[in-house]
């Protein structure tokens, strides 16, 4: 089983395995509108046929499938070398079901019915973790930009003078999004989804406040540059080059 090397969220290949055609259509359409390449399967046999046509970056897998069930499929894929990550879906939302799925090798688990925006956020998070695990991430465990140093494991930001700058959870999440996508225009919606995931609906225009606070801390640190630029009618851009440390 081969894992695709294209792990960017905008072009990742998703395989949706669910015996409900309505769910397959809704999810594949939603993910397709967010830049993913989506194929579908109704059962394990169709899933194998889809995998034979080409590698995928992630499988969204329902537990209650006809024939070979999702748990058996998950166990088989997780035991294969370089198998794609799996997000399991199930109408059975009990903790024991979730734990069994995760113990069999699933990377995440969602109870059905689920909000498509939450599934989208979970997919992006799992793909980011897979990138780091496989050494394909644009940013390593730490990075440097314009004299600043950001440790993504310790969640620690140091100014060019070596002073630790305290960041709130929201500010750190925003900065991580920016350093992972430098010199690209990011809309408010993209920042919401990438930084806050399932909670983004409640974040609303507070994104501007978080960016204002983050800018102030970067300016106070003596960076001397316009690191986060406002792009009129479009969004924001993180301007410096980012180097993996």
TrEMBL record:
Modified residues annotated as 4-aspartylphosphate in this record: 62
Sorted alphabetically, the Gene Ontology cellular component annotations on this record are:
cytosol; protein-DNA complex
Out of the domains of life, which is the source? Bacteria
Q: Name one GO biological process term.
A: regulation of DNA-templated transcription
Annotated ranges, domain Response regulatory: 13-127
Please report a single Pfam family linked to this protein. Response_reg
Q: What is this protein called?
A: Regulatory protein VirG
SMART domains tied to this protein: REC (SM00448), Trans_reg_C (SM00862)
Q: Domain (OmpR/PhoB-type): give its ranges.
A: 140-240
DNA-binding positions? 140-240
**Organism this protein belongs to:** Phenylobacterium soli
Instruction: Write the record's keywords in alphabetical order, separated by commas.
Output: Cytoplasm, DNA-binding, Phosphoprotein, Transcription, Transcription regulation, Two-component regulatory system
Task: Give the Gene Ontology MF terms in alphabetical order.
Answer: phosphorelay response regulator activity; transcription cis-regulatory region binding
**What subcellular compartments does it reside in?**
Cytoplasm
Q: What PROSITE patterns does the entry give?
A: OMPR_PHOB (PS51755), RESPONSE_REGULATORY (PS50110)
């Amino acid at each position: 089983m081969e894992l695709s090397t294209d792990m960017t969220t905008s072009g990742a290949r998703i395989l949706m395995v669910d015996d409900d055609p309505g769910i397959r259509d809704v999810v594949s359409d939603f993910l397709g509108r967010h830049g993913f390449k989506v194929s579908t399967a109704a059962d394990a046999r169709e899933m194998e046929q889809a995998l034979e046509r080409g590698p995928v970056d992630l499988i969204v897998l329902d537990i209650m499938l006809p024939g070979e069930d999702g748990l058996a499929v998950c166990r088989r894929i997780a035991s294969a070398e370089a198998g794609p990550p799996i997000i399991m879906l199930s109408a059975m939302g009990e903790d024991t079901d979730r734990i069994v799925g995760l113990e069999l090798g699933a990377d995440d688990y969602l109870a059905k019915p689920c909000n498509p925006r939450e599934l989208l956020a979970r997919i992006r998070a799992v793909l980011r973790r897979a990138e780091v695990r496989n050494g394909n991430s644009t940013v390593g465990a730490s990075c440097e930009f314009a004299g600043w140093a950001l440790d993504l494991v310790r969640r620690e930001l140091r100014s060019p003078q070596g002073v630790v700058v305290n960041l709130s959870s929201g500010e750190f999440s925003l900065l991580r999004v920016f350093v992972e996508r430098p010199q690209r225009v990011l809309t408010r919606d993209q920042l919401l989804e990438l930084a806050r995931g399932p909670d983004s609906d409640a974040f609303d225009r507070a994104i501007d406040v978080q960016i204002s606070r983050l800018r102030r801390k970067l300016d106070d640190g003596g960076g001397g540059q316009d690191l986060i630029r406002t792009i009129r009618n479009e969004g924001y851009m993180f301007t410096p080059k980012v180097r993996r440390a």
